[in-house]
Amino acid sequence: MATKIVVPDAGQTTDELLLVKWHVAVGDDVAAGDLLADIETDKAVAELESHATGQVLKLMAEEGDTVETGQTLLWIGAPGEQVDEATAPGAGTTPAEQAVTPEDAAPTPTSPAPAGTLATPAARTAAREHGVDVKAVAGTGPAGCVVKRDVAAFPTRDHESLRGTRVPLSSMRRALAVRLQQSVREAPHFYVTVEVDMTRALAVRQAAEPRVTLNDVIVKAAADMLAEFPRLNCRLEADAIHYLEDINIGIAVSVDDGLVVPVVAGADKRTLAEVAERARSVVASARAGRLAAGAQSTFTVSNLGMYGVKSFTAIINPPEAAVLAVGAVEDKLTLTAAGIVAVPTICLTLSADHRLVDGALAARFLAALKDRLANAPQPVK
To answer: Prior bond to 319 cis, omega within 30?
Structure first.
């Protein structure tokens, strides 16, 4: 039976998105995990991956179309299989005519275009907000179309020129304002904090593959603890609590225009090395203005330790139930049997939604996470 691929709900604040580019054509063979399309959200260009294996049977939208969350984008199935779905845009064309041409398949930057530059609405909005002449931007979209990521990569005014100016909120900043205001208004936050001896966690990081970071260790440990405390891996839906099957850890990442949360999906089922590799990939994509679509975070880790911040409280990323704030590692003088010893210590603060999580549950989770990092022979798998 054919599988339909729909526009995912990746947590954006609008249900309308832009189909920027197809990476497949009718008749192409695809496997689970293959890149299907680029979709522009209110924060970035998201990469839509396939969750099915088979042949592309029908494309239900064209590049440049506005699509909505839940809308069918394409069908994947066995070669020749029929699809009982409304006819795609461009009705009456054959699959070969619907196929994306080789020229469309590979995004190649073009020279800046003159008047009449082809640009997406989001790109034009971003250009206006940042004082960029869209005609001067080289487009990487279909037929040289300027997309939002092109504007984000274009050099803009320096910091000195911002002094004394009034700059409208960017679309990303507006989206952040809506989501965070919603979180503060609707979710009664409470906070619990622990200090953790990171000696063993640092040793695990040191012994691991060279590119594993301390944040990777914490992300993996948090995912493992969520598997043991499923009551924190949930969200409020109307008058019910939905306990989620997947454990997808969001990593808060600062970008020039605000904040994005790329996702390490299924983090509890990955090894530490796999978590680190996936985190590097999604963070790099996020900073380049591209996010993988499909997996929505169920719990977020926000780390400001690299800035020397000792501790802080984070705002919950709705519709999640909690967020973990990670501070800097600092040597703390501790009295032991061997005398006064400098112990590398970190502050972890959990912000939780009191509608879903009680104080005792949050405290037990944080205590277990502390034990996982500080005392277990192998804190992280």
So the answer is: yes
